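Example (one chain per record):
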Amino acid sequence: MISLAALLYCTLMKPMFLPDVENNPRQNSPYAELIRQMQSGNVPIPQIFHLFAFKPEASEHLSRFTQAVMRGPSPLSPGLRELIAAFTSQQNRCPF
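Predicted structure:
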């Protein structure tokens, strides 16, 4: 699920430089359905979602890693971790 912080930073999302990746999600990927829902709701789609949908077997480990870091046991709340990630992305001029 995309966070509010992620939505705020995705409002100026540009198309990918890899149209084959962006336009050809694997239909059995859970991200393909998420992309369709976001498109139908006119919600900006984080570019990493296209990679997850295009090569789910190659990106599954990255998804698990991200969830473990952002949602796993930590002295920091998940919300604070999201805020740190959003702030860092903004400082790097990178959509979060």
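Caption: Residues 56-71 form the longest helix (16 residues).
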